[in-house]
Give the backbone structure.
Amino acid sequence: MASNKPTVLIIDDDLLTLELYRRELGQDYAVLTCTDQNEALTLFNTQTLNALVLEPALAEGRGWDLLASIRLRAQELHLPIILCSILDERKRGMEGGAAAFLVKPVLPVHLRDTLHLTIGKNL
């Protein structure tokens, strides 16, 4: 049976963070998670997503590369990207196409509220 919940892809290389967010967001969203750029690109290109949550500080800054590679397609799809990072690089993130930028530690409830606001604009 297919879920009627909006689908969110979370990309972070911290497994504890992924599990924490999956548990909280799973009440309202179908949550997909991955830890690397290649898997993220596969999911981005094959799944119908309503939002994407990305840690741009993935290993060796590959999250920024991922953001740059999906930015235009995400804009075409009206897919909001929320950056949720240990680095406070809000300006870079917003210029890179993010709908929101959250600096960790981010409480799961705060991420959920941010998703509600950004997805609500796009549904």
Summary: The beta strands are 7-11, 30-34, 51-54, 81-85, 100-103.
